Amino acid sequence: MRSFARIVAVAAMGIVSLWGGTSAPAGAAPRAAAPAAFAPCTSGTTTVTIGGRSILALCGGDYEDGVTWLQYQNRMHAFVIRASDRSVSHVWETCAGCGTYSDWTGLYGDALSRVYYHFYDSGRALRIEVLGTYNGSWCRRYNDPSARGQWSWWYDC
């Protein structure tokens, strides 16, 4: 997997936020984390509850604590690897700073690691990356200049 700048600790509730690349985009300082609860990682899974919405996620080993947090377009986002099928799931704040969150949305895939990310296009676009089942990196892009407001499909990156 490509090297990414990894961890910016967020003091509240043991939540971890990752900034992709070498630094956070301009104006994207970490803020208070989502209303969240995390069960301890036992037997490789943890229950993650964000904004009242729960999901059973993989944790431990390459999945680390099980949650990737980031701030994108002034809203908090979280990514997990769903325990039932190793697919990527995503929840996001529906409006900047409001504390209301979407339902968990599946982004498919078959991940062997936590989600890493990188901002590009001057911070307007987001790329997520996981270690795939053949031990190579698989990526999806959101808000790419060629498809604003949409996720790409998984591609070998």
Task: Outline the structure in words.
There is one protein chain. The chain has 157 residues and is mostly beta strands. It has one domain (8-156). It is built from no helices and 13 strands. A 4-stranded antiparallel beta sheet has the order 6-7-8-9, with no helix packed on it. It is globular and about 40 Å long. The N and C termini lie close together (9 Å).
Overall domain count: 1
Q: Give the mean pLDDT.
A: 80
Given as residue ranges, the uncertain stretches (5+ residues, pLDDT < 50) are 1-34
Total strand count, please? Answer: 13
Structure annotation, total helices? 0
Structural class: mainly beta
Reading side by side through the largest sheet, how are the strands ordered? 6-7-8-9
- Name the helicity range: under 10%
Gyration radius (Cα, Å) is 14 Å
**Tertiary shape:** globular
The biggest beta sheet reads:
4 strands, antiparallel
Distance between the termini: 9 Å
Fraction in beta strands: 35-45%
List SSEs in N-to-C order.
EEEEEEEEEEEEE
